[in-house]
Amino acid sequence: MKTILVVDDEPKIVQLVRDYLTHAGFTVATASDGQSALASVRASKPDLIVLDLGLPQLDGLDVTRALRRESNVPVIMLTARVEESDKLVGLELGADDYITKPFSPKELVARTRAVLRRAENANTTEELIRIADVTLDTPRMKVTAGERGIELTPTEFQVLATLARQPGRVFTRAQLLDAVQGVAFESYERAIDAHIKNIRRKLETNPHQPRYVLTVYGVGYKFCEP
Amino acid sequence: MKTILVVDDEPKIVQLVRDYLTHAGFTVATASDGQSALASVRASKPDLIVLDLGLPQLDGLDVTRALRRESNVPVIMLTARVEESDKLVGLELGADDYITKPFSPKELVARTRAVLRRAENANTTEELIRIADVTLDTPRMKVTAGERGIELTPTEFQVLATLARQPGRVFTRAQLLDAVQGVAFESYERAIDAHIKNIRRKLETNPHQPRYVLTVYGVGYKFCEP
DNA sequence: TCGCGCGTTCACAATGGCTTCACAATCGTA
DNA sequence: TACGATTGTGAAGCCATTGTGAACGCGCGA
After folding, report:
1. pLDDT: is B79 or B200 the higher one?
2. Closest residue to D8 measured CA to C1′
3. What is the pLDDT of residues A87-134, one digit of tens each?
4. Whose C1' is closest to the CA of A214: which nucleotide?
5. For chain B, how far is it from start to end, CA to CA, in angstroms?
6. How many CB pairs lie under 8 A apart between chains A and B?
C-alpha cells in the first residue's frame, strides 16, 4: 500500500488530510515543518508528498528544492489562494500537482491517485526485451521462447524481466526480491527459488538443465551468458 | 513534429506555456482571443489546442463549440475556476482534458503528451471492430456476438471497445478508467470489475467461463488471446 | 416530486498465487 | 571421497486478488 507524507503547520489541516487519505486506503505519515519533513522522507520513504507551501522557516519551495537533490518522489503542493503568476514560476521546481485551499476531499484523493498513477507509468522502460530466442512483451506480459507462448504469473514475469533486462548480470535473491516487491517488507529470500523453479518449469525445455535462467552458486541467478 | 496552439489573453501565461512546450519539442502557435484562435486553427492546423476558458468576448467554451463543428482536434482546457460542474461542462463539450490555474508546467507537458497519445490511438481506430465472432459498431455503439445483438451501457461499451481495439493486450484497471473517463476524474479502480461483470453477463455464453473478456490475475483484463 | 437507469461502492465468498517448510539433490572444498 | 553449504522441489497454509449481489447516489425525464 502506498505511503503518503503530509506536511502542514496547521494541525487541523494535517488531521483532515490524514483522515481522508487514510480512508482512501493510503498509509499516512505527517510532519509539521520543513526540517522534520525532510527527515521523514528519509525515514518513511513515502510514495508521494502533500506539501503546504506556506510553512514557517523552510517553506514548501525550499523543501521541494532540497528534496529534488536526493529523490524524485512526486509532490502535490497545497496552498491558500495566491497570485497565479508568481507561483507558476515557483512550481517549475517540479511539483507534480497543485491544490488551492479550501479544497474538496474528493479532489485531494483524486489528484493523489492521478499523480501516483502518472508516476508509476513513468517508470516503465522498454516494451520489448529480446535475448536469444526469448522475447518478453511487457505490455502484454507475454513471454515466448522460440515458437512457444508461455504464461507467467505477475511475480514470475517480474523476476524474469529483471534478469533479462541485463543479461549476464548476476542478481542476488535480495535484489530480485527488491525488484518484485519494492524495498518495503522483507520476506524469506528463498521464495525467489520457488519462482525460479516455476519459471524454469514453464520456460525451459529441460528444467533440470536450464539454458536461460542460470544459477550462480553462492550468489544468485542470471540470464544466459556463461 | 506536433504543432500546438496556445490561446490565452494573458501574455505571461502564453509566454510560459510556449516556453515549456517548445522546450518539450513541440512547435507552438499562439493566439490571444477567440476570433484569432479560430483563424489560427484553420491556418496552422494544430495537433492540439491549449485553450483558456476565460477569454474575453468569445470564451473558451464558445471557441470549443465553434471548433467542434469543423474539427475534432484535441483540446486541453485551461482555467482559473475550480468548480467541478465547470469541469463537467468543459469535458462534455469535447475538451480532452482540463487543467486548473495555477498549474505546474510539468503537468501541462505531461497532459499534453497524454492527450496526443490518446488522440493518435483514437484516429487509427476503425469504426468497426471485429474479433472472433464479436463485432463492435463504434458510431452506433452496437455490439453483436454471433447472431445475438447486445445492449451495453455507454461505459460498458467504452471498456469493451478499449479492450477489443488491441486484442491480447492486457489493460490495468487504471488504464481502463482512463479510457472511460479521461485523466481528469478518478474513482475506485474496482468499479471496473463491476463493468466487466456486467459486460460478461451480457456478452458471454457462460459468464463463469468467459471466452472473450479474460482476467489476467494481478494485472487487469484483456480481450481474447492474441 | 417520484421513479428509473447508470455508475459506483461495499461486503463477503471464491479463487489463485506467494510464501514457507522439509527434505532431496547438487555443488565446492578439504 | 566426504562433508557442510547451497540449491531444487513438492506440498500446504496463508493471503492478496477477483467475482458477485446488493445498496447507494446522482442526474434525468415523466
Report:
1. B200
2. A197
3. 444 444 456 666 766 676 677 787 787 777 666 554 444 567 888 888
4. D7
5. 32
6. 67
Please say whether the dihedral angle defined by the alpha carbons of residues A95, A99, A101 and A107, taken in this order, is positive or negative: negative
Nucleotide nearest to B187 (CA to C1'): C8
B168 vs A140: CB contact, 8 Å cut-off?
yes
- Taking CA atoms, what residue in A is nearest to B166? A140
Distance, CA of A203 to chain centre: 28
Span between the terminal Cα atoms of chain A, in Å: 39
**Other residues' Cβ atoms within 10 Å of the Cβ of residue B104:** 24
pTM exceeding 0.70: no
Q: What is the pLDDT of residues B181-201, one digit of tens each?
A: 654 345 688 999 999 999 999
Q: What does the alpha-carbon distance between residue B55 and residue B80 come to, in Å, rounded to a whole number?
A: 11
- Answer whether the bond into residue A210 is a cis peptide, omega within 30°: no
Contact A84 B102 (CB under 8 A): yes
Q: Which residues pair with A172 in a beta bridge?
A: A220
Q: Which parts of the protein come within 7 Å of strand C, by CB position?
A: A 153-156, 180-181, 187-188, 190-191, 193-195, 208, 217-218; B 153-156, 180-181, 187-188, 190-191, 193-195, 217-218
